[in-house]
Amino acid sequence: MEPIRLNKYLSEQGVCSRREADRLIEAGKVTVDGRTAGMGEKVTGQETIFCDGKPVGRAAGGRKAKPVLLAVNKPRGVVCTTSEKDRAMNVVELLQYPVRVYPVGRLDKDSEGLLLMTNQGELANEIMHAGNFHEKEYEVTVDQPFNAAFVKKMREGVELKELGVTTRPCQVEATGKRSFRIILTQGLNRQIRRMCQELGYHVVSLKRVRIMNIHLGHLKTGDFRKVTPQELEELTRQLELAREEREEGAEHGTEPG
User: Of these residues, 22, 33, 108, 143, which one is catalytic?
Assistant: First the structure.
């Protein structure tokens, strides 16, 4: 096997996403042949590799975990990170799933709804890729009635001064005097809350109900289910299409969409 970056290797072995692998490496929780691994290090898979105290690849007898993709209804108050900074229950502890799985992206502590969890690093990377313009749909309630001007501004893009960016145009539909449905194709940190705050509103409740073709449906809060073969087939098709558009865009120097 040709040497590849350690974060990619951990991802391909189903340990975690590349981003999470980088965090673990930086925290000194990954060892290669008995020594602490370094950022950007390359491996062939023939090494004795441990991640967070657990053997990976050859060290685990070459066993690769069976692929898992779960749809979870994350409750409010549960976090998606295993960071020790926040001692709230994290979603991995909540599920107690027999196979090691981790969140695909984030859903902040105060938000609820659909969260995908997997042990497939490359799948997680593809879904989280910002250049793919994947749709994520939310139901939102704010603290006061809004008007048509609010909806128009949300649709056209809001300048987030704190982040120094203007949000991408998106789909917004009022569902009540203080509630609306919004479909985003980007995932800035606490994006919807920041957008509303810039326009003078405070988010009271926020629920994610769809990621790409996977819907929350009637899944109860705190419950999870396996993504169906049909859902996975359509998800894979959409990811492949996005990858092709991204590569074509790179050749012509343009963004997909």
Answer: 108
